[in-house]
């Protein structure tokens, strides 16, 4: 079940949104906006965030900007502000959509569904971790637009990074990577993985992500 997080400071609107979304059904969480929202989002890893602009602590635009440095989670601004400049600012800061209050429930649900469908298509073609994007269609890695030029990966480099990103946060042993890369080979020189890893790390460094892949001595690799 897809998880939607509501970040809204008005209790009645927050509860109204929860009832609406749970009826779909979505899994819904609604943390108190006075808390450490960045940490809560990192831990909860929602599929989509409904975000208000006027929050009691960090404002919605700042929170969105901070999130975009490390996450591509879809964000729909749902706010009482309704000028074209408000909408433009939200989209420029990294929002995926903008809806003014009072909203029509059917319109909100349609917007959520559309953003989730679009995100699913993008995820099928690319992986994201922190602020790095692995584009499976083009075989390239890149940081957010404007920070660097994409770097092209070889087939094995792409497979290594794909496997590590699919297991992000976990330690992946050398043996596990060798089995994934060359499972049909009878014998592979252990140095082949080291060579490919060195080349991959060099390309990561070239786009500004030199420490993206860590080494856990005696255990394997981890991102």
Overview of the molecule:
Helix content is 43%, strand content 18%. The chain has helices at residues 11-22, 37-44, 60-68, 84-92, 105-125, 155-166, 174-181, 191-206; strands at 3-7, 27-29, 48-51, 75-79, 97-100, 126-129, 132-135, 140-142, 151-152, 214-216, 220-222. The chain is elongated. It has two domains: 3-125, Rossmann fold; 130-222, Orthogonal Bundle (Arc Repressor Mutant, subunit A), CATH 1.10.10.10. The protein contains eight helices and eleven strands. β4, α4 (84-92) and β5 form a beta-alpha-beta unit. α6 (155-166) packs across α8 (191-206). It is an alpha/beta fold. The strands form three sheets. A five-stranded parallel beta sheet has the order 2-1-3-4-5, sandwiched between helices. Strands 6-7-8-9 form a four-stranded antiparallel beta sheet. It starts with a strand and ends with a strand. The longest helix is centred in the middle third of the chain and has 21 residues, at 105-125. GO terms for molecular function: phosphorelay response regulator activity; transcription cis-regulatory region binding. Residues 3-116 form the Response regulatory domain. Keywords: DNA-binding, Phosphoprotein, Transcription, Transcription regulation. It comes from Eisenbergiella tayi. The modification 4-aspartylphosphate is found at residue 52.
List the helices and strands and how they pair.
Layout: E1 3-7, H1 11-22, E2 27-29, H2 37-44, E3 48-51, H3 60-68, E4 75-79, H4 84-92, E5 97-100, H5 105-125, E6 126-129, E7 132-135, E8 140-142, E9 151-152, H6 155-166, H7 174-181, H8 191-206, E10 214-216, E11 220-222
Parallel strand pairs: 1-2, 1-3, 3-4, 4-5
Antiparallel strand pairs: 6-7, 7-8, 8-9, 10-11
């Amino acid at each position: 079940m897809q998880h939607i997080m509501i970040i809204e400071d008005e209790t009645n609107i927050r509860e109204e949104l929860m009832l609406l979304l749970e009826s779909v059904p979505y899994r819904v969480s609604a943390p108190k906006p006075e808390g450490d929202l960045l940490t809560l989002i990192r831990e909860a890893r929602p599929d989509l965030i409904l975000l208000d602009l006027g929050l009691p602590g960090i404002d919605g635009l700042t929170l969105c900007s901070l999130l975009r440095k490390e996450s591509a989670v879809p964000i729909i601004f749902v706010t009482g502000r309704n000028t074209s400049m408000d909408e433009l600012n939200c989209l420029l800061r990294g929002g995926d959509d903008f809806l003014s209050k009072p909203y029509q429930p059917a319109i909100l649900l349609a917007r959520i569904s559309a953003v989730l469908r679009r995100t699913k298509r993008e995820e099928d073609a690319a992986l994201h971790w922190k602020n790095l994007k692995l584009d499976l269609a083009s075989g390239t890695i890149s940081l957010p637009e404007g920070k660097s030029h994409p770097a092209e990966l070889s087939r094995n480099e792409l497979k290594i990074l794909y496997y590590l990103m699919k297991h992000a946060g976990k330690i992946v042993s050398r043996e596990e990577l060798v089995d994934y890369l060359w499972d049909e080979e009878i014998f592979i020189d252990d140095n082949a993985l080291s060579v490919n890893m060195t080349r991959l790390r060099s390309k990561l460094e070239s786009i500004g992500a030199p420490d993206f892949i860590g080494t856990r001595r005696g255990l394997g690799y981890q991102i």
